[in-house]
Amino acid sequence: MPKANCWEIMGCGRQVGGHRVAELGVCPATTCATCAGANGGVQGGRLCWAVAGTLCGGEVQGSFAAKSASCTACEVFKRVQAEEGPAFQLLTPRQADHHAMVEQFVSIMSIIDAINGVVYVADLHTHEILFVNTYATKLFGDQLVGKRCYEVLQSGQTAPCSFCTNDRLVVDGQPGPPVVWERLDTITHRWFMCSDRAIRWWDGRLVRMEVAIDISEGKAAEQFRDEYVGLISHDLRNPLNSMALMAQVARRSLQKKGLTAEAESLSTVLAGAARMNTLIADLLETTRLEAGQLELRKRRLDLVAWAVQTARRIAPPEARDRLVMRACDEPVNVRADPSRLDRVLENLLSNALKYSHAPVMLDVRRQDGEGVVSVIDRGVGLPAADLPKLFQRFYRASTHGRVQGTGLGLYNARLLVEAHGGRIWAESEVARGSSFHFALPVEPSQSS
Predict the structure, then answer these.
(1) Is residue 398 left, alpha or beta, with left meaning phi > 0 and alpha meaning psi from -120 to 50?
(2) Is domain 299-441 classified as CATH 3.30.565.10?
């Protein structure tokens, strides 16, 4: 209910004859014969006084009476006090503020109590726990309020924790920004993502409120991912490289002996090993990109010179005559890691040359403050429904047929371009070809 004068809330805003109630100093509920019923009489007056936090004379209920005797002279107040007894008194301004704050606090705490995570409030100086939600009591017991947080939320702790954030939560006497961190709880042996912040408690003091969400499953997945990367890097790649090397040695030996057919059969083994190495590289790169572990070594790079040189280097010899290059005459400088961009261009060019037997164009230009690299083919093209999904993990377009691939190349390309602060997209039409583009912010000319 919005705050207003009690007579406004009850709908009895004017005395018969147009006189305002505030001018009369008494409620018309007891004096006006036409105000009987829901908005008048003893019932109406009682309801007026029962509305917590309403205003009287422009101030919190009861505070106006402390300055003026007119409210205590109100016939409604006299009748209610007679029925309730001498204990019924007008609230002082401080009592009214306290009453409203407590009610608001109780409402907020009931909401917090429903959160599926640990929420507790503790004194910034004494570390005494003032409030815990139901989820916290399930993990740490129901005798937490009144005890020091470090004694009941950590095992064997007799003094404030070395990682306590209390000294970082208040800035110049006011609540500062939240502090977000992770911790391993020594009682439950589970990992929590914690967000600590100073808030104003109902009694006016600053306290710490911590919201801790269980991230143990995510931590376990992160550990598995790290182990998975190590497994691929060492236990799979090394023996694969050894097999490929032995196959190369055997093929050369067979060729020297004139056993051409036998030597050519090992080409299939080497091609399979190459595809497996590509798959492993894609998986490793995907894992590192998603984990934020891939370090970019950016430097000033002219996209024009880089694209021309890289395309000539990575294009297969049998396909170089189908590669057409078109680039603007002036340098297009960006800040990028050339080795990572090589992977992006290699993926786009290899796809275009693989799915098209017609010439493939590589275009580099400056456009609207960006350096744009485009790979344009006249291949089988893609349905419109495939375009929004092309850069998703493991997605394979419906027109790829039996052409082998990991389904990670374009996904990794997107992650790499976005890691550079750029964007990547595709345009295509079935039977008319596809255009893949990526754009990076152009570096200001005065930068070095």
Answers:
(1) alpha
(2) yes
